[in-house]
Design brief:
4-stranded parallel β-sheet; 294 residues; 10 helices; alpha/beta
Length: 294
């Protein structure tokens, strides 16, 4: 009597297995992993390729990344060519048909973003320009709402048995975002003026009404010359500025020098999930961003 019982259990377990299997999701950046975890929870296993301490412009492909891509059901990335130096190599070398361009397992988050600052020409003399537009959109709550919707739909497509679960979590994400946006809307940023190290905060500035009136990098990705720093000192003399914005992975030499010469404060913005111990997810990251700017 026991053998049929065991056999029935094994058959039942094998047929039930897909319902319990996790989607293996690889994300390039921590903020993407945070959103996927919010929406997928115990239905997904997330591997993040880039550490929050790393400059996302300067990443190189590693064998461990290729192995992660080979095992992925879904690869999700920032797009707008931010990962151009390593992602195509990973996808091609993985030989994983699920994540090749045009497949459901290849997810470009920037498809849900209205990109800004698209250059008229991609000329290397202009510095490290991004031909498809500014890729640093993840500090924009408006963009994140659209991206979360897209992620939810894709998870539902790849795992239709749990579609209602992903959709319910997406609804909870929207409600939480709407509540937080009311709080962040009181940050009193409109009209403030900053100098920034890099073109990192443009989407946030556009959404919340503050201005970026100068950059320590004369051209994106190119260190400033002494003459350029002098021009920023002159700018500070004639304009009431509220600070110098930078992130942890940019050098502090030029911002600190400019601060000493102008009396402005250097504001190190937590730029990514995990950039500080408190930035444990995207919502907490944004809490810290607004607290830094206020």
């Amino acid at each position: 009597m026991k053998k049929p019982t065991i056999l029935i259990f094994l058959i039942t377990f094998l047929f039930a297995w897909p319902a319990f299997a996790e989607l293996n999701v690889v994300t390039t950046l921590p903020w993407i992993g945070s959103i996927v975890n919010d929406l997928g929870r115990d239905k997904v296993k997330v591997t993040v390729l880039v550490k929050p301490s790393q400059d996302p412009h300067m990443i190189e492909a590693k064998p461990s990344m290729i192995l992660a891509a080979r095992r992925a059901d879904l690869i999700m990335y920032n797009g707008l060519d931010l990962e151009i130096g390593y992602l195509p190599i990973l996808i091609e070398s993985s030989r994983n048909p699920k994540i090749q361009p045009g497949r459901p397992g290849n997810f470009d988050c920037s498809r849900f973003v209205a990109a800004i600052e698209k250059p008229l020409a991609a000329d290397r003399s202009l510095g490290d320009v991004h031909p498809l537009g500014n890729p640093h959109y993840h500090l924009s709550p408006g963009n994140m709402r659209n991206i979360a919707e897209g992620i939810s739909r894709t998870l539902s497509q790849l795992d239709p048995g749990n579609a209602s679960f992903y959709q319910e979590n997406a609804s909870g994400f929207r409600k939480k975002l709407d509540e937080r946006r009311k709080e962040w809307g009181t940050a009193q940023l409109r009209g403030k003026k900053f100098v920034s190290y890099h073109k990192y905060f443009e989407y946030l500035a556009q959404e919340y009404g503050f201005q970026l009136v100068g950059y320590i990098e004369a051209k994106p990705g190119i260190p400033p010359s002494p003459g350029h720093i002098e021009s920023l000192i002159e700018l500070a003399k004639g304009t009431k500025l509220d600070g110098i914005l930078t992130t942890a992975y940019f050098p502090r030499t030029a911002p600190d020098f400019l601060a000493r010469k102008t009396g402005l404060k250097v504001i190190v913005i937590p730029h990514e999930v995990g950039a500080t111990p408190q930035a444990t997810d995207w919502f907490k990251l944004m809490d810290l961003v607004f607290a830094s700017l206020s």
